[in-house]
Amino acid sequence: MKAIRYHEFGSTEVLRQEEAVRPVPGAGQVLVKVAATSFNPVDDHIRLGVLAEMIPTALPITPGLDVAGIVAELGDGVNELQVGDSIIAMFPLDVHGGAAEYAVVAADLVTAAPRSITLADAAALPLSGLAARQAAVELAGIKAGQTVLVNGAGGAVGSIVVQLAVEAGAKVTAVDGRQHADRLNGYGVQEVVGPLDLDAGPAAVGGPFDVVVNHVRLAPEGLAKLTSYVADGGIVVSSAGPVPADEARSVRTAGVWVRPDASHLADLVSRIDNGALKLHIADRRPLEELPTVHRDASNGKLLGKTVIIVA
Fold first, then answer.
1. What's the rounded Cα separation, in Å, for the pair 66 and 58?
2. pTM of the complete model
3. What is the rounded average pLDDT of the residues 7-32?
4. Domain residue limits at 210
5. How many domains, the chain?
6. Predicted confidence (pLDDT) per residue in 68-79, tens digit
7. Both 90 and 75 in a single domain?
């Protein structure tokens, strides 16, 4: 089968298209004929090897933590799925496998794909959606009436955090470039502001806030300044580095460490199908262009969430 793989950690040059052996599902697994995967920033970090100690992964690696496709074969003991089912899933961070014509996935990580969008576009949901849900629902516990600042609101994860917060009844201030303003306003935010001037302080953007959710890579001193944007007793959640707590003001902090969860993914699918959640996809590229997508991401040229079409 056709696959993109790398046999050593390194720059984008280690990625190559090659013929790989079609995997066979074991007990509790399904074989998926892959329609699409998507690029996530963590893919770049894993390929570089900077997460090798934290996320041990055997080489060679077929990248792609998201998968959308059709169940092609059932392993022993799989009774809840049928051949021909349209599914999506997130691989565990130490597994991967979406950038290939076929992939083996644990059956208990699989969720029925949304019916209201294409199967390929559904590949944009798993990791980004689960990270957003973890940030907004599990960690921040956003509630009606709260004020929420989302830094990096226009990105794949931030866009979903914004929508979950608005749906919960929060008053959301979205921070990102003006090119995202129309879309973010369409999600129902109170205000869209440009990139944060951390030296200007929270009052410059209407703060402090009950909840701050950060998805922007900042230097440690920048992350430390985010604490001042949180009101007494509030929380800051970050997927882009640790933000210090402030015990004197009872300001809590939490970090996002995304994990696969079929039931949480099913919840997000239902929100898509009932119109409460929209996916923003910046680009769709064929499998053979995945090395270029990695290169664009490394050079800061990737437009946003990019779906990789496999079949």
1. 18
2. 0.96
3. 97
4. 128-255
5. 2
6. 999 999 999 999
7. yes
């990791």: which residue's tokens? 127
Within a domain: 269: no
If asked whether residues 150 and 230 sit together in one domain, one would say yes
Q: CA nearest 35: which of 74, 57, 10, 64?
A: 64
131 three-state secondary structure: helix
DSSP one-letter string for 16-43: EEEE-PPP---TTEEEEEEEEEE--HHH
What DSSP character marks residue 173?
E
Q: Is residue 267 part of a domain?
A: no
The H or E element containing residue 133 is helix 126-133
Residue 270 falls inside a structural domain? no
Integer distance in angstroms from the first to the last C-alpha of the chain? 12
Give yes or no for a contact between 277 and 126, defined as CB atoms under 8 angstroms apart: no
Cα separation, 280 vs 270, in Å, equals: 17
Whether 272 is covered by a domain: the verdict is no
Q: How far is CA 47 from the centre of its chain?
A: 17
Residues constituting the chain: 311
Q: From the centroid of its chain, how far is CA 209? A: 24
pLDDT at residue 303 above 90?
A: no
